[in-house]
Amino acid sequence: MLAALRRTIEWTGQYAYCFLHHNPNLRDELFTTSYVVPQPLLAAIRVVVFVYCLSVLVANLVVNIMHEAGWSWPAYFTTLTYLGITMYYGFAAFNTCQYTLVYGLRNRRRIHTSMVSHPIQIPLEQFRQRTLGLGIDHSSASPPELTPEPKGYVANATSQPQSPAGWPDNASIPATLAQPSSTLHQLALATQWLLYETFTCYAPLVSLIYWGFLYPSSGGFYERIDTWMGTSMHATNTALMLLEVLLFSRCPYRWTHFTVVISVLASYLVLVYFMVGVYDFYVYPFFDARFFGGYVAIICLLVADIVGLVWVVLLMVHRWRDTKYPKWTQE
């Protein structure tokens, strides 16, 4: 039993390490650069948007507390998705500013992409011995196969990438580039990736449900601050999604990650009925089976279908963007 648990922990650690450090999609430039927007401007835009989203979120919380509704504030899907948007722009702003400072301001000369596109790798066996504290047991289950290392990876942290002819030598590269990419840094990129996919997929859903079903029965906005918060959380979110997908971001979209999106929706459904069981409070009226009966299940399936449709459309848009934009920018 202990041996099986040990092998499971070791395999999980190896898989997480391989995903973070040998994943060709977790490269800095995919999360911190744009096809059309200069990087310093992109960093400034993301900082401004993060501050704006955080202001909206805090104002919404304060207003709910003033109306004695702070206890239900975290249960709304709009609140949770807008929190995800704020977190996304927080990670995106941090990673983009860090990338700009390291690769831009500290090194005025151009660096070949094969030298900066990929983190320098630490050997997997060294990771297993030093980080996991486990010896190499060849009788255990085989670790997942590593993704083939793209051009620019080096075998270990002591070797240096060779400069192509005509490009600056390694002495001109900032010291931070000569160090192995830290697990925390790769984890920050992975978190930004996850938040990006959920944010871009949920934003149209929130706007559609609110303006199509909830707003007509709410009687509209009563005060200016309600108008500001309502439009920011139910309309600006989709506008930011479109700008991020079409202009600001180069994040990849992977169809296999759709399971994460559906899992988040299922978890939210559990939260909804937790609120019913504990507080006898329905976050949204269409979850109330006393009035909608069996239609609640149909509504849940309809929401899942809408999310699936949005995911497929965004997947095609990302493939079109990643194919066409590089050609247009090189012309």
UniProtKB/TrEMBL annotation:
UniProt topology in membrane? Multi-pass membrane protein
This protein's superkingdom? Eukaryota
- Subcellular location(s) of the protein: Endomembrane system
Report the transmembrane regions from the record: 43-66, 86-105, 193-215, 227-248, 260-282, 294-317
| Pfam families the UniProt entry points to | Far-17a_AIG1 (PF04750)
Record bears the keyword Acetylation: no
Which keywords has UniProt assigned to this entry?
Membrane, Transmembrane, Transmembrane helix
Classify the main location. membrane
Q: Which GO terms describe its cellular component?
A: endomembrane system; membrane
Q: Which InterPro entries match?
A: ADTRP_AIG1
Q: Which PANTHER family match?
A: MYND-TYPE DOMAIN-CONTAINING PROTEIN (PTHR12242:SF1), OS02G0130600 PROTEIN-RELATED (PTHR12242)
UniProt-recorded name of the protein: Uncharacterized protein
Please name the source species: Linderina pennispora
